[in-house]
Structures are given as structure tokens and as C-alpha cells.
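re: ur msg from earlier - yeah i can do the uridine 5'-triphosphate complex, just paste it... oh wait u already did. ok heres what im feeding in:
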Amino acid sequence: MPAKKPLKKAVLPVAGLGTRFLPATKVMAKEMLPVVDKPLIQYAVEEARAAGIEQFCFVTGRGKVMLVDQFDVAVELERTLTERGKQKELDMLHAQALPPGSIITTRQQVPLGLGHAIWCARAFIADDPFAILLPDDLMQCEVSCTRQLADAYNETGGNVVAVEEVPREIVNRYGVIDPGATTGNLVEVKGLVEKPPIEKAPSNLTVIGRYVLMPEVIGHLSKMERGAGNEIQLTDSMAKLIGSQPFHGVLYQGRRFDCGDKAGYLEAQVAFALARPDMAPAMREILKRHA
Ligand code: UTP
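and the outut:
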């Protein structure tokens, strides 16, 4: 069934503590960590815009003001760049600017879990479908991952999550889908379980940090039920939508780097540098020196 409402909103939960990156995240938000020269949050916003998203809600916490400032006009910086004739840098900043009023923030005072973070954005979501992007999952792909989901939403008119196959022995770290029929890149989702024991996992298809959900998920989240790790899990409320609304996984076409993890973050630096003509020769030299 084709989608009834266009997908224009995205929620970016950025209220996590980022404990795996301490001490870097003692003062600075994890989502400000740069890959090559761009912060994770900016990759996520650019990915969403490439999928037609126009309104953003950052779910923030203590010490996350910088994330919003990243999308503000830096008046003094621009003046200095103008005085110094740095037109290339000015053009880059202008190209990245968002239209006024396109970002709002809401606060998750205590990080009670991803599901709770999404519930904190309920006024922004209202009655509209919305995308979720977890900025610490960094995507490298030809067609933006959010665009891949938006296309699936337009086709099915329901919930869609990006899924990826992982080795069976690590499924217990992720939300896992119980897959039904597969058509092309689209897998029907018959069930969802967060961090299952390996022997009980329904498959090795795991949900990665990109979603398009229907607003009805908020009703389930508002029950505040605790799940795996005693957190209010998004997966548990998504699972309750299955049966009453279409729910599909999109077999994501591209590479994903878990930048919430040190090894994943370092690999992203290498992969993104190698993909850039201005950085690739230097990165190849570095890799040779350390082989
Ligand atoms: P993570 O599981 O990576 O948690 O959250 P974290 O706190 O950011 O990092 P570690 O594990 O302590 O190192 C996944 C995403 O969900 C957001 C995070 O900001 C991140 O984008 N999140 C998580 C919230 O916004 N609120 C929460 O209560 C939990």
C-alpha cells in the first residue's frame, strides 16, 4: 500500500553518555567526534536531507549544546573568513546551512534508553511518520541509507528498519528480526527481539541505526516498560506494531561503521579517507608504514 503521508521529519537521539569513548566524551558529545573532518552529527543530517527530510528533532542531554551550534551561523568565523578571502571555506559552510527553524531540540534528562529518547520527541512527531537516525552508525553507500528506507516506506506505507546480516555469534548485541517473505531488498518482519541469547535469536538479521516509524509507536512507548538491560527499549515497542501495521526490514546496501565503538570509529576514519581523492594518497602511505 503506498504511503499516505510524505516523510519529512527525523528524530536524532543524541542523549547517550558515550561511556565507551571516555575521556573524549567527558565534556564533548560523542556525536561531535569527526570522521576525517566532519562530525558524526553532520553526516547524519546530510544523509537525512538527501532523503528529503526537512525537519529535525535532536533529543539532547547535558553537555550537548555544541551539536545544535554546529548548525548555527558562526557570525564571527564567517567575518574572519571573509576578511582573509577564504571563499572556499565560506562556500562550504553556506552549502551546509539548514533553513531557519528546521531544527528543534527536546531534552532527555536521564538516559533511560533509546525508546525513552524517542518518546521525548512525541510533540515533534505528532501524527506524522518519522525517520530515526543514530548518528554513531555511520553509513557509506551510493544511495543514502535513509533514502533506501524512505523508498521502502513510500512503497509499503508502513514501518521500515534497516537490517544487516551479522555473524551468528554476535547477534546478542543487537535487535534481531524474525524474517518472513523476502522480495528484492524488502524482508517482512514477523517479530523483533532486543539482544536475544544467541541460541534463541530468530535470525542473524539485525536492526541498525536507521528507522522509519509510524507515530503509533509513541502510544506503546508511553507505557514505559523496561526491557533488555533494564532500559526502555525501542525494539519492544516496535514489536507491538507488528500485525496491526506493515513492518519490513530493508537489506541495507552499503557499509556501516559503528562509531560508538573505538575499533569501528577508527575503521571509519580509514574508509572515509580512502574514499576521498584529497586524502586517499596520504592514507595509503600511512597504511603502508603501519602494515
Ligand atoms: P548507545 O547504546 O551507543 O549508548 O546509544 P551511549 O550512551 O550513546 O554510548 P555508550 O554505550 O555509553 O558508549 C545509541 C544511540 O541512542 C542514543 C545515543 O545518544 C546514541 O545515539 N541514546 C541512547 C539516547 O539518546 N538516550 C538513551 O537513553 C540511550
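cool cool. The longest strand covers residues 175-183. ping me if u need the other ligands too
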